[in-house]
Design goal:
The complex is a heterodimer of chains A (about 450) and B (about 850).
Chain A (H helix, E strand, L loop, with lengths): L1 E7 L6 H5 L7 E5 L2 E10 L3 E10 L1 H8 L13 H16 L6 H4 L3 E11 L5 H7 L4 E9 L9 E13 L1 H15 L9 H10 L10 H8 L4 H14 L18 H15 L4 E5 L5 H8 L5 E6 L2 H10 L7 H6 E5 L4 E2 L8 E5 L10 H12 L3 E7 L4 H4 L16 H15 L1 E8 L10 E8 L9
Helix pairs in contact in A: 3-6, 6-8, 7-9, 10-11
Chain B lengths: L1 E5 L2 E6 L6 H8 L5 E3 H9 L8 H17 L4 E4 L5 H13 L3 E7 L3 H10 L8 H20 L3 E5 L2 H6 L1 E5 L4 E2 L6 E4 L6 H10 L3 E3 L4 E3 L5 E4 L10 H13 L3 E3 L3 H12 L8 H9 L3 H12 L4 E4 L4 E4 L13 H9 L2 E5 L5 E3 L11 E4 L8 E3 L2 E3 L9 E7 L3 E6 L21 E2 L7 E3 L7 E3 L1 H13 L15 E2 L12 H10 L4 E7 L3 E8 L2 H7 L8 E4 L11 H15 L2 H4 L4 E9 L1 H4 L1 H38 L19 H23 L12 E10 L2 E2 L5 H11 L12 E5 L3 H15 L5 E6 L15 E4 L5 H4 L9 H4 L5 H22 L4 H15 L8
Parallel strand pairs in B: 1-7, 2-4, 2-5, 3-4, 5-6, 8-14, 9-12, 12-13, 15-18, 18-20, 26-35
Antiparallel strand pairs in B: 9-21, 10-11, 14-15, 16-17, 19-20, 21-22, 24-25, 27-33, 27-34, 28-29, 28-30, 30-31, 31-32, 34-35
Helix pairs in contact in B: 2-3, 10-12, 14-27, 20-21, 26-27
Classes of the chains: A alpha/beta (about 450), B alpha/beta (about 850).
């Protein structure tokens, strides 16, 4: 909403020259999302303050970007402010000073106040990010609503940074870092953003101790872009040894990978040639299955259409050969609805899925899979809640969408009952690092049909 | 000459080239009934004489033929049909489709055909081809009937062809004209005493001695077959049923035992198992004339009937929908034996598949054959064999009343080999085929509601991931449109538009109900867990549910139980349960505080916007004010050097004083906005902090209250639900006479008072629950929201003059279409549930509402 920059010193009205903005002439800057105003709330020899005030058109913004009409964007200092900054003070950001070049090139006693900076997460990061750049950092935080203290703190702060810096650096720091603390960006992040980041970050970002944090957040955590930025930052870094590799080789494989490998092993061992992955998500397991020639027919099922789209994209199915397309199928389906398309497979995988069902719906799932689909082998994995203590999950679940998490005893009891009811036998395996008392983080049950296809349910 | 063909059949016109097949077909059949090979040759290759594409042409022809027959439409195959292979394809089609194959042969002298051929310019082959075809035709004539054509008609001259009349006749099983009412009787198996008692109980005048029974006026009996075997008095039963059928007092379909009896009587089969020996012993004591009568009676039994315009089907072992009204050996087998796989179980009995689980037909199928302890209704099918001969009951089923009358067996006459089991049912397991893809739902209020595939897909996710157990979901409320946009300068919505909407559509009275700014809640309460289990088939020990308009449970903790218990106390104290003779109720309500469910919205959206806006704008106002002071003070004292300005840098100067004023106005808008949302937030620390305002009594056992007007709903709720426990609160409301200006002015003032300090507003409904306007269906309700309240919908600053005119350009049409469709579906799902329809029928409506809700629509409406 509002950014003010104050220059303290001898002849501070010269700030006007440096910014190419006449203190006597308040100005309007036209922007795609509204307007910004530049004016001077303080003008004196010792202290001059310029203000950049946003006037965002909420209706235009929501029409264009799909924001809700009730939105904080018009009132905060976010990426919109960064855009306004380049529009209003673009020349100053390049370092051009014309008749006052020397001043433009000097470190001045400057301070900037950002009103309503959205700052998700730990406010201490403000210090961690700005202090290495030579600023003193102060912020004021607010309750969300004075009448409802129980709602806690608002995530906005009024941030003031003060330091001896060149004006152009201050502007660039603000340009890059305001959106870093915000969770949104009003425009699409693409590789052009990488260039902007590198340009604006030149001379300070490559060796910033928080560069990972800054790059990640500036690029909205898009891994591809972040990696691209990192490669280039590494080339610019003063100390080459300080490179943060994108994937540390010594890092142990993540639980997810271990789990998928364990599932794959079971599926292979089952002798299956046709496999259905129920709850395939974005296709992690499918990617492994498709590489293995043991499997002649692979089907991924998910209830979320967007997950299937993502799977298809990751498997590059659209342009795949006919022989690959005939091997792999993606279908939208639900585990609580009987579905003829689930039938006729040797093995079904249900990896980290059942815990997303309400317990009351589990009976429907059992019938859909064990009574009607009836694959010969069924591989089920689910978290072992005993292990949560090792993760430091004290109460509640590992994931907010988990409707339940079972101890080993609970899982095994369910598995035995289900196996018995529908004519299967079940064996159990642990997946992941084993703890003596808590077991493994993931538990797995491998159900094998005992060949008695007679439906024995009541 | 008059020839008869069944009205549903595959008709092959057989004849040599130039015998006039196409001309004949065109004269006697609709153009769309005729599938001509020439036409399909042209369709796939642009050339109707192209012999090279024969295969492709016939593939296409048969594809179309199958689609037509799937839909039950007579289909004529106009090809030479001279070759045996070609006819085999026709016969195969008939067999696949379970319809009769008819051959109409145009058997003209060769000379006539050759002569005609010579005159045609569109056939290039030599005349000797015709000669060859004539030879084949002569052969063919002898074998047609043997090949499997049920009806063969040969027309031997041009004269015969010219004067033939084709009449379409009904199939034997077609009794659609018979509308009932009927009394359908289960498997009798020689239990004559019980049969007489049952008929007597059902009001028949029974003369037991003389084997006569006369139905009460207008009624007719239908026997589901298996009259004999195992039981004590088989010949008595036969005499009675034969006399009833012969006199027109009853229909009877064939059962497997009846069919077997025919075989034994005819050929003296030796395998006298399953109690047929008893029947045979009794028949042996009768005259041979009687035996012949029995044989001919049983042999003449049709395997299934379709009654009452297709709404009722009776077959001994049931019948899947695609066989209804069809006729073939396969259909007959199904009717007699059910969906058998050829396997036998451990008792040596045939394994039968539970076809009824997948039955989705609109016709009620009444059948017997499988003895069960109680009659079993699954998916619009009902099995009424309650094992009388095994010591169970003989069941009579009244149609259309769906009432059951039963007579206990005097004793067990025969021992079951296999213990009586309730049938294996898929029960409440829903099938994805019933919800996914593009669908057309038909409801009482709207004939056809289209659900797009992508919306079904979205609904599947919502339903699977978030919704409560589908067995609880018997209703979802429709979305509600606002009134038309106000024509007043400072308002986006005002009541006069809502009144105008209904007045224009011929509604004379409306009810205005205050909105409480709660969350829409559907409440289902059963008197106890056993009711939940019996009526909703929920067996987890809960006795009700409170769910949101998207079918999500409101409370994950025991708040739900506590609220439901309080409601039960109130309903019990006010005598609701007894007065409405019900043990469950479904209510439509608002649940407060809104903040209880909207915490996320409040903390993530409303409060942050308020905080950011108030701090940000205050800082802005302060900065502008200082800048103003700087300009006036310092500029005048020439402290600032105006020459700094470079002309090319100056884009637009700014009037800071005006800006200060505007930002001040914006800051004030933010204050109003905070008041608007805070008003409806209160902290919930205990159950007493909740408020529930019911506004519709949707349904109780046997009744959907869409036939009562909104005043009845308000009054009944006031009488039975509010004013006792503070949790359950009444809704202020006002009856408005739309033709009376005073009445509407009063209502407008009432709305002004409600909303002046931020009240949400009101809902305007036609007095009747299902509003009857002049012509087109009308909105069940429109909302008219308060001016202050709308800030939390349209943004804190929506009333500013630069914003409101733009916001007034809004379109309500999508919202209103959805509201009407969802209303129709919601009412339909209640009707179906109350009517005892299977879960998938109720669920498809619920699913439809969720699907419609996934259509993109302006969320501010």
């Amino acid at each position: 909403m509002l950014l003010t920059i104050t220059y303290l010193g001898q002849n501070t009205t010269e700030l006007g020259y440096l910014l190419f903005k006449n203190p006597a002439r308040p100005q309007v800057v036209e922007l795609s999302f509204g307007k910004a105003y530049v004016f001077y709330p303080e003008v004196s020899r010792e202290r001059t303050t310029v203000a950049l005030l946003l006037d965002v058109d909420p209706i235009g913004l929501s029409k264009r970007s799909g924001y809700d009409y009730v939105n904080d964007r018009p009132y905060v200092s976010s990426s919109l402010m960064s855009t306004a900054l380049t529009k209003a003070f673009g020349t100053a950001m390049t370092g051009r000073g014309d008749f006052h070049q020397e001043l433009a090139d000097s470190r001045l006693n400057l301070s900037a106040t950002v009103t309503m900076l959205p700052c998700r997460g730990n406010h201490q990061n403000l210090s961690a990010v700005f202090e290495p750049l030579g600023y003193e950092v102060e912020w004021e935080s607010f309750t969300l609503d004075d009448q409802f203290h129980q709602w806690g703190q608002a995530s906005y702060v009024n941030l003031t940074i003060t330091g001896e810096v060149r004006l152009r650096d201050l502007l660039k720091h603000l340009y890059v870092l305001m959106p870093v603390f915000d969770a949104h960006k009003h425009y699409w992040v693409d590789s052009e953003e990488v260039d902007k980041l590198l340009r604006m970050g030149e001379g300070w970002l490559a060796d910033h101790p928080m560069k990972q944090y800054i790059t990640d957040r500036y690029l909205k955590r898009q891994r591809r872009l972040v990696n691209q930025a990192f490669e280039q930052l590494a080339a610019m870094s003063a100390n080459d040894g300080d490179l943060i590799p994108t994937e540390a080789p010594e890092k142990p494989p993540r639980l997810n990978e271990v789990r998928l490998q364990a599932v794959l092993n079971q599926v292979k061992a089952s002798g299956a040639s046709t496999v259905i992955d129920l709850g395939c998500g974005e296709g992690n397991l499918l990617k492994l299955l498709v590489k293995d020639s043991q499997f002649t027919k692979i089907t991924g099922v998910d209830v979320a259409h967007h997950a299937l789209e993502k799977s298809s994209e990751r498997l590059m199915l659209t342009d795949a050969s006919e022989s690959m397309q005939s091997r792999i199928t993606l279908i939208q389906g639900s585990l609580t609805y009987r579905d003829a398309r689930f039938s006729g497979y040797d093995t079904a995988c249900v990896v980290e899925v059942i815990e997303h069902l309400d317990l009351g719906r589990l009976a429907a799932f059992e019938r859909v899979l064990f009574e009607y689909a009836r694959p010969r082998t069924i591989v089920v994995t689910t978290p072992n809640s005993e292990y949560n203590e090792i993760y430091g999950v004290e109460s509640g679940h590992r994931h907010e969408d988990h409707r339940f998490e079972w101890t080993r005893a609970e899982f095994q009891e369910w598995a035995h009952t289900t196996a018995q009811r529908y004519g299967y036998t079940v064996a159990f395996l642990g997946v992941g690092d084993e703890d003596e008392t808590c077991g493994t983080p993931t538990q797995m049950g491998v159900f094998t049909s005992d060949g008695n296809l007679e439906v024995t349910c009541a | 000459m008059r020839i008869e063909i069944p009205e549903l059949a595959v008709v092959a016109v057989v004849g040599v080239s130039s015998s006039g097949k196409s001309t004949f077909a065109q004269r006697h059949f609709k153009p769309t009934e005729i599938l001509s090979s020439d036409f399909f040759r042209a369709m796939v290759s642009d050339d109707e004489n192209n012999e090279k594409v024969t295969r492709q042409a016939f593939d296409t022809l048969y594809y179309v033929a199958n689609k037509r027959l799937d839909l039950g439409l007579l289909t004529v195959i106009d090809a030479t049909n001279i070759h045996k292979d070609a006819r085999a394809a026709v016969l195969n089609l008939a067999k696949e489709q379970n319809v009769h194959a008819v051959a109409i042969v145009l058997n003209l002298p060769e000379a006539t055909c050759v002569e005609r051929h010579a005159q045609r310019s569109d056939r290039s082959f030599p005349a000797k081809v015709i000669h060859r075809q004539m030879e084949q035709l002569r052969h063919t004539l002898k074998t047609l009937k043997k090949e499997g054509f049920r009806y063969v008609h040969v027309l031997n001259s041009e004269d015969e062809i010219a004067h033939v009349e084709i009449h379409r006749t009904r199939l034997w099983n077609d009794k659609k004209d018979e509308t009932g009412p009927f009394d359908i009787i289960g498997d009798v198996h020689g239990c004559y005493d019980e049969l007489c008692s049952l008929l007597d109980t059902m009001g028949y005048a029974v003369d037991k001695e003389n084997h006569q029974a006369t139905p009460p006026s207008g009624r007719r009996a239908i026997f589901v077959g298996d009259l004999c075997d195992r039981g004590p008095k088989n010949t008595d039963v036969l005499r009675l049923v034969m006399s009833m059928v012969n006199s027109g007092a009853a229909y009877c379909v064939a059962g497997n035992h009846d069919a077997k009896l025919v075989r034994i009587l005819r050929r003296g089969l030796t395998n006298m198992t399953h109690g047929i020996d008893i029947t045979m012993a009794q028949l042996d004591a009768e005259t041979s004339q009687f035996r012949t009568e029995v044989e001919s009676f049983l042999d003449g039994l049709i395997s299934h009937y379709v009654f009452d315009g297709g709404r009722l089907v009776v077959a001994h072992a049931g019948l899947i929908e695609k066989y209804h009204g069809r006729s073939s050996g396969r259909v007959r087998s199904f009717c007699l034996y059910g969906d058998t796989t050829g396997e036998t179980d451990e008792y040596g009995l045939p394994v039968r598949l539970p076809w009824a689980n997948d039955y989705r037909g609109s016709a009620l199928v009444v059948y017997g054959h499988v003895p069960t302890p109680e009659i079993e209704m699954i998916n619009n099918t009902v099995c009424i064999d309650t094992g009388c001969v095994f010591g169970g009951k003989l069941t009579g089923f009244r149609y259309p009343e769906k009432e059951v009358v039963q007579i206990e067996a005097a004793r067990e006459y025969y021992t079951l080999i296999k213990p009586l089991h309730p049938p294996t049912t898929s029960g409440d397991l829903l099938n994805v085929d019933d919800v996914l893809g593009q669908r057309f739902l038909s409801t009482t209020l709207r004939k056809s509601i289209k659900i797009n595939a992508e919306n079904s897909a979205a609904a599947l996710e919502v339903m699977s991931r978030f919704a409560a157990d589908p067995r609880w979901l018997i209703y979802l409320p429709p979305t509600m449109s606002p009134c038309e946009t106000s024509t007043l300068d400072d308002y986006l919505e005002d009541p006069s538009q809502a009144f105008e909407y209904y007045r224009k559509r011929g509604v004379t009275q409306v009810v205005c109900e205050r909105k409480h700014m709660g969350s829409r809640a559907v409440i289902i309460l059963c008197r106890d867990e056993s009711v939940a289990q019996r009526r909703f088939r929920i067996a987890d020990g809960t006795r009700g549910i409170i769910y949101t308009r998207t079918g999500r449970r409101f409370f994950e903790d025991d708040t739900e139980t506590t609220l439901l218990t309080s409601l039960d106390d109130v309903l019990t104290r006010t005598g609701f349960w007894d007065e409405y003779s019900t043990d469950w109720v479904c209510l439509d309500a608002e649940l407060m505080p809104w903040s209880a469910k909207a915490q996320g919205l409040l903390r993530e959206q409303f409060a942050p916007v308020s905080r950011a806006g108030s701090v940000g704008l205050a800082a802005g106002v302060a900065a502008i004010t200082s800048a103003c002071a700087v300009l006036t003070d310092k500029l005048e004292s020439a402290c600032l050097d105006d020459t700094l300005a470079r002309p090319n840098q100056e884009k637009k100067t700014l009037d800071l004083a005006a800006l200060a004023e505007r930002y001040q106005a914006r800051a004030e808008a933010l204050d109003h906005y905070a008041e608007a949302y805070r008003r409806y937030c209160w902290e919930v620390t205990s159950i007493e902090d909740y408020r529930i305002a019911p506004f519709h009594i949707l349904a109780t056992e046997g009744h959907v209250y869409s036939d009562r007007n909104h005043l009845w709903h308000m009054e009944t709720i006031a009488k039975h639900m509010t004013g006792i426990d503070p949790i359950f609160m009444a809704t202020d409301h006002l009856l408005v006479d739309l033709s009376d200006e005073k009445s509407t002015m009063t209502a407008i003032q009432w709305w002004q008072d409600l909303t002046a300090s931020g009240g949400e507003g009101m809902v305007v409904k036609p007095l009747d629950f299902i509003g009857h306007g002049d012509s087109a269906p009308i909105q069940p309700a429109v909302k008219c929201r308060g001016r202050e309240y709308l800030r939390i919908i349209y943004g804190p600053e929506y009333l500013l003059k630069e914003n409101l005119p733009r916001l007034k350009k809004r379109s309500l049409s999508t919202k209103r279409r959805l509201a009407l469709q969802e209303f129709a579906l919601g009412m339909e799902s209640l009707d179906r549930f109350v009517n005892g329809d299977p879960l998938h029928r109720v669920h498809e409506c619920i699913f439809g509402v969720l699907a419609l809700e996934s259509e993109p629509v302006d969320p501010r409406l």
